Every structure is written in C-alpha cells, then in structure tokens.
C-alpha cells in the first residue's frame, strides 16, 4: 500500500485537544508505508514548560487566564457519568491512566531536545535532575478514595445506592457500613483511583506531543477559517516543533478538530450559545504529612495517599480533597454556573478550607494545631488560590462531525466537557480520532487497548 499524507489541525491546547492530538499521532506507522498524519495544535494559551508552575502551571511573567481551565483543575478520576457514553469515556481514560501510572514513561530519560525548532515562546525542558519536590512530582498518582453522599431532605425513598453502576467498577471498591457514616450522610464507599497533578500532567502531554513530531502554533484564532490558515501557514515566531524540515511536506490542512473550551461560545464558525462557564475556585495547600488511615473495622488501605469528596444531595461535588503526590493538596471547591469572575474570593477561600478541615482535619499544620482543639483555616499552609472557568455545555458535550466543511476542510467538534475533561479525555480523544479517520477515509487504527510506549 502506498503511503498517504494528511494534515490535521487541532484548535485548542486543553486536555481534550491535546489528548486528541496524541491519539492521532501515537499510531503513526514506523515505515514509509501506510497513512501518515501531520498534527498541528493552534492555541492562544499553552502550558509553560520552561518554568516552575507555582502549584498551578502558570509562569511568573504571564499568568494563564481562568478560561484556560485545564491548567487550574483539581484533577481526580472519580466518575460522575450520567450516560453510557460518559461512562465509557471514563472507563477508557481510567484504563489508559492506570497503564501510565504503572509504567511511568515520564521517568525515562528525556530525549535530546537541542534540535527543537522554536522561538523562546515555549522551549522544551531537558531531563530533570533536581531533587526539588515540584520537579520530582509525577503526573499521575494512585490514591485511596473515600466518597461520601449527603442525605436528601424529606422522606427517604428506598433506592439503589448512588454509587451503583457509577463507581463500583473501580478497583478495591467497598461500600462503607452505615454505622461508620456521620450524621447527614446516607451512603459512602472507598476504592482505588488516580489523582492527576494537573500542571505536571498537562506539561508532560505537551512534551510528548512535540517529541512525537507534533507542531504547536501559539496564536489566537477568532474563527475556524483563521485556525485553518494559522495551521497551514503560521509565522515562524509562532511555531514550536522538533524538526521544522519535516513540515515542508505537510501541505494544507485536511481536517480540523475544534476543542477550544469556552472559546466555542465566541469563535466564528461555532458560536455555540449552550457553552457557558462553571466557575471553580480551589485552594492548594501544603500537607505532605497527609496519609490514609485504616479504621479499626476495615483493612489497611492499598495506597498511602487519601482522597476524599462529598456528593451533595442535589448532585455535584463541592467538597473534595485531592493529594497530588508532591506534598501539595487541592482543596475544593465551587461550581457556579454562568459566573465569569476570574478573581479569587477571600471569603470563598475561607469557606473551602473550613469545609475541607471538617472532612479531613489532618490538613492542618501539626505545628499550628495541637490536636486538642478544632483546626482553623489559619492552621493550613496555603500555597495558592486558583480560579478556573470550566467549559461546560447545556445538553452535554458535543462530539460530532460538522455538516459543512470550512474551505474544503473537514471539521469535527469535540468540546463542552465542563469539569469532566481529564477523566473523559482519552475516551473522547479516541472517538474524535475515529471521526477524523472516517472524514478523511483513513483506515482506522483505533482500539480501546492503548500502549503508552510512545508517550
């Protein structure tokens, strides 16, 4: 079979766009035969690979906006699926993340990057050798998760437990006995899952994308047509790639995957008014002493790090504790629909800390809290306060092929995942890849089982 070349553009460098780009690149043929795809990401905001994140992925010189929610998330893989498709995406992503957490491909010696062709916008870092805690942080860590459910007001109707079919597929799943639940709680369970150190994971994904031959164009596209133009003929100062010579073969864009987050509400060619923000505020705290303790009636937890969250009676998690494996813990949070305010609110910070301390008193600094009195918000070592605007969509995520092309370019929409972007990322990416392959009539190479060897 003769080789064929395709150029695919991705609009957006959030976790959905980046995972989709990697899903397309990772199955490239090792020989000159078969179909080969060039992949260009066009995005106005990208992770800062060359600087410490300060707990949130931001550079000291330029702080990403709250709309770049993928950098501000407090990521844990705890499914809240409301449909079979959402559950399938969550399971596929968990399978991939579990494989990555076992194989730890990020710990392998980094390839030489001196040949990288780029401006100073986004240099790819060399292998890290420092003993600094932030630099030693891993993108994904296993945790012992405790999930608690608030009791609804009014008469209780006998029904199946709220975790049934949603969480009971996770490894080491166990329901909590009723006698162990405090007042106001109706159900609880524990299981093993993955927590995501979002700044580290996101930078690592982008590094993998560049190492696999992807190209990044750091520029704002205000329309789908402009995204195609930027991906086809970018200015040299906007480009980051490993080997610029290979891109002389790329040619014009054949397909565009639109994953612009909240930008889907404003970008010409999409302008989806169902897209809206869900404002989230979290507090990053220093608590390296936090560890999972086994109650007297239960077995020793399989993982040292403990994660917690409380599901409200009306749905949604607004109290959660997410350890990141580097001594920092994300405490949350809020979910305020249609709130565009990017600034942290001090009163919200205090309420978050008080709620999380009520759930996990061990968050308090042992040197400040004697353990004889109830810990206060002032007893917690705060590293930072982050605000992110989750890119939600009324009616659920959009993942489909556009009815009309843009200047002959096939278009696939893949956006609107709100706060579920990380846990749905690989499932959504594989479906988006399949739509691209169908649009371009590329023989499909997608499968649920994915190797991480190239990542």
From TrEMBL:
* Signal peptide as annotated in the record: 1-21
Q: What is an annotated GO biological process for this record, any one?
A: D-amino acid catabolic process
Q: Where is the FAD dependent oxidoreductase domain?
A: 8-430
**UniProtKB keywords:** FAD, Flavoprotein, Oxidoreductase, Signal
Read off the Gene3D superfamilies from this record: D-Amino Acid Oxidase, subunit A, domain 2 (3.30.9.10), NAD(P)-binding Rossmann-like Domain (3.40.50.720)
* Alphabetized Pfam families for the sequence: DAO
Q: Does the keyword Nuclease apply?
A: no
Cofactor(s) in the UniProt record: FAD
Q: Which family does it belong to?
A: Belongs to the DAMOX/DASOX family.
PANTHER family linked: D-AMINO ACID OXIDASE, D-ASPARTATE OXIDASE
- Record-given protein name: FAD dependent oxidoreductase domain-containing protein
Q: Which organism is it from?
A: Kalmanozyma brasiliensis (strain GHG001) (Yeast)
């Amino acid at each position: 079979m003769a080789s064929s070349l395709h150029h695919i553009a991705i609009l957006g460098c959030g976790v959905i766009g980046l995972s989709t780009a990697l899903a397309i690149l990772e199955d490239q043929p090792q020989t000159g035969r078969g179909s080969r795809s060039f992949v260009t990401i066009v995005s106005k905001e990208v992770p800062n690979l060359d600087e410490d994140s300060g707990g949130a992925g931001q550079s000291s010189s330029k702080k990403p906006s709250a709309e770049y929610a993928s950098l501000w998330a407090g990521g844990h893989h705890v499914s809240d699926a409301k449909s079979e498709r959402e559950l399938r995406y969550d399971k596929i992503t968990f399978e991939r993340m579990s494989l990555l957490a076992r194989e730890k491909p990020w710990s392998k010696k980094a390839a030489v990057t001196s040949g990288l062709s780029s401006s100073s916008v986004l240099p790819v870092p060399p292998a890290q050798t420092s003993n600094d805690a932030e630099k030693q942080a891993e993108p994904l860590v296993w945790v012992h998760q405790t999930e608690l459910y608030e009791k609804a007001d009014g008469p209780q109707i006998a029904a199946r437990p709220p975790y049934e079919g949603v969480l009971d597929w996770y490894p080491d799943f166990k329901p909590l006995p009723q006698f162990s639940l405090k007042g106001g709680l109706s159900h609880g369970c524990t299981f093993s899952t993955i927590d995501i150190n979002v700044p580290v994971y996101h930078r690592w994904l982008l590094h993998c994308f560049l190492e696999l031959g992807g190209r990044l164009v750091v520029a704002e596209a205000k329309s789908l047509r402009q995204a195609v133009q930027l991906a086809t003929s970018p200015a040299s100062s906007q480009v980051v790639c490993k080997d610029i010579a290979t891109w002389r073969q790329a040619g014009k864009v054949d397909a565009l995957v639109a994953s612009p987050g909240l930008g889907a509400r404003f970008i010409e060619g999409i302008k989806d008014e169902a897209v809206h923000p869900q404002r989230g505020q979290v507090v990053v705290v220093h608590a390296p002493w936090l560890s999972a303790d086994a109650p007297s009636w239960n077995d020793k937890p399989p993982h040292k790090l403990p994660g917690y969250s409380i599901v409200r009676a009306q749905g949604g998690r607004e109290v959660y504790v997410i350890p990141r494996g580097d001594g920092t813990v994300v405490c949350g949070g809020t979910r305020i629909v249609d709130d565009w305010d990017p600034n942290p609110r001090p009163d919200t910070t205090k309420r978050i800390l008080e709620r999380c301390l009520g759930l996990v008193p061990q968050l308090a600094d042992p040197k400040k809290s004697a353990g004889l009195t109830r810990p206060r918000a002032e007893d917690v070592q705060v590293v930072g306060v982050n605000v992110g605007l989750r890119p939600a969509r009324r009616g659920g995520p959009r993942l489909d092929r556009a009815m009309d092309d843009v200047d002959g370019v096939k278009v696939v929409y893949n956006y609107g995942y709100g706060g579920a972007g990380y846990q749905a990322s690989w499932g959504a990416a594989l479906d988006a890849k399949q739509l691209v392959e169908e649009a371009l009539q590329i023989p499909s190479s997608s499968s649920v089982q994915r190797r991480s060897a190239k990542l």
